[in-house]
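Q: I have 483 residues here and want to know how they pack in 3D. Can you give me a structure?
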Amino acid sequence: MEWNFRSAEELAAALHAGEVTSVELTDEAIARIERDDPAINAICVPDFDRARAAARDADQARARGEDRPLLGIPVTVKESYDMAGLPTTWGMPQHANYVPTEDAVQVSRLKAAGAVVLGKTNVPLMLRDIQSFNEIYGTTNNPWDHGRTSGGSSGGSAAALASGFGALSIGSDLAGSLRTPAHFCGIYAHKPTLGLAPTRGMVAPPAPALPVDLDLAVVGPMARTARDLALLLDVMAGPDPLTHGVAYDVALPPARHDRLADFRVLIIEDHPLIPTGSAVRAGVNRVAEALVDEGARVERRSPLLPDPTEAATLYMLLMMSNAAASLPIDGYEQLRTHAAALSADDRSLDAARLRGMVLGHRDWVVANNRRELHRHGWRQLFAEFDAVVCPITPTPAFPHDHHGGLENRHIDIDGVEYPYFDQLVWAGVATMPGLPATAIPAGRSPAGLPVGVQLIGPMFEDRTPLRLAELLEQKIGGFLTPK
């Protein structure tokens, strides 16, 4: 039997019933990677010997009567997570030989849950691109069209799942890095509420693995089904045992509803700062029509929605102030000079990004206070709605584009070019206020490429968009194997 495209939930049931062993699942996954990955290049650091040993251990544990959430299930891990004995480079050539001695907290949780780690998946340089390529490991191709990107920065993980290389993967998300690859590759991903899943050990080399509370960035699950996302999130969620975990545990509230008919959903298909491409618009409307068909309350606008233009500006300020923190002082001073020359009337996203890179602490506090006002606005909105459905990016996966600096690239939206980074405004809708967002497949473009949408839910009510994703999967279908 072909197991590589079965869900983790199905594999767990088959393992429990004795229909297959972890060794068999692992050998089959490795064989598929060895056969198909040369054309995809998703698995940049294979760990097959240790995977086979872990599979043998899992089978022995099951024979002793043990049963853990992921016992014996093959998975992958984004390259940016520390794994003892394997390189963590973040695609930076100067750190090609950096090998940590401890596992990231999320890798430890995977292993404690019984997962069999097949290896690590490819990323862009410093995780700072919507494509996954670097000088060390090369380019990861989209399984649906090898001439197109798989997305970034968790593009290797998304391509691996779409190709049948393991049942689950863990990634991270600051600018859509879980959601965009899921959208481009036709899989599922969940950006958890900010702070729900600890990030220790998901750190650029050679920095130490400290329990830092990151601003904006999260780690989260990727899968081929919505139910598998919830399964993996349960493994990942909960405070770091070195800090908050000393005092408390996590208890997420249940989903607000169990039927599509009971959901109250706001549909947003347009953003004031960038157009929505026709293929993505069709995906959003496919979901909207499915909800209407099931009797859900669906609205197309609400005065409760926090101002999307200000939200995008705040997002760029906060994101870029983090990104520029590691710049050398001479480069930083040049940026300060450029930012000072900006007109006070320049409210473009380019200007917001430049101002963000040199944001002083006083201005950061002002921006952060504005973020809290937006969070308050979202709380009011989620008193009237249960979820928001909107795009992840304006287009399906685009052709590989590795030319020039990121600031000089453009994105083609139905024949018109826009600044490359402007497409991140959709990721920022959920990221800036720290809201949970589930990426789901929502059909195919006229060219046959996957199209996804994101389901945004209330803060710390992650189970609500996850349950909505599961119900929509039953209604409109989900993952399809690339041809």
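Q: Anything worth noting?
A: The CA atoms of residues 22 and 72 lie 5 Å apart. The two ends are 19 Å apart (CA to CA).
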